[in-house]
Amino acid sequence: MSHLAHYLTRFQSGNYYHIYNRGVDRKLIYKTRSNHLYFMRLWQRYMEGYLDVISYSLNANHFHFLVRVRHFEASQLGDKTEHELVANRLKMLFRTYALAFNRNHGRTGSLFDGPYKRVLVEDSRNLSYLVQYIHVNPEKNNLVLDFRTWDWSSYKFILSPRKSIVDRKFVLEWFGGIKEFVLFHSKDNQEVDISPMLSDDE
């Protein structure tokens, strides 16, 4: 997949997508705990009922979400396509967050490095590896010594009955249970090449 396609992929109901972006010039897009919490509240406000979250991680200067697009009634779509409906909600989410971040931190200009990217996950066999990649990402980026301790990913929520934005039931069923989920994350999985679903420089 070309890098340009990461900006042009269109959303369709029932499909899985990796959505990601980073701060302009690799600068921080989350500086405080309240930044993380506010971003998650905005996700709930704008995306609940539109995208099912399979996994996510907010990683200081970038974020990752693995999602499934829901099926929509004609009344929900109105005069929009599925892609337009989801893309508009995401645009409002990121714009609202950027405006609030700039205001709170006394900055101006673009917060994100261009439009968000999205990649269609065409082979469902890649889901497990992408979930693991997203969860391990904070450790890979030296934000924490052990990704299991990172507060701003879905890993802890999948292991806990606490309510969150992640579709815990689906994820555990996909991996075959909590034990299998934990075991898969303890492996250095190299069986599947997921690089086409990642940006060239993440």
In short:
With 202 residues, the protein is an alpha+beta fold. 40% of the residues lie in helices and 13% in strands. The protein has a four-stranded antiparallel sheet with strand order 2-3-1-4.
Please describe what this structure looks like.
With 202 residues, the chain is an alpha+beta fold. Helices cover 40% and strands 13% of the residues. It is built from eight helices and four strands, in the order αβαββααβαααα. It has a four-stranded antiparallel beta sheet. β2 and β3 form a beta hairpin. α2 (33-47) runs antiparallel to α4. The protein is globular, with a radius of gyration of 16 Å. The model has no long low-confidence stretch (mean pLDDT 91).
Strand order of the largest sheet: 2-3-1-4
Going by helix content, strand content and strand pairing, the class is: alpha+beta
C-alpha end-to-end distance: 15 Å
Low-confidence blocks of residues: none
Give average pLDDT, whole number: 91
Radius of gyration, in angstroms, nearest whole number: 16 Å
Please report the total strand number as a whole number: 4
Shape category: globular
Largest sheet: 4 strands, antiparallel
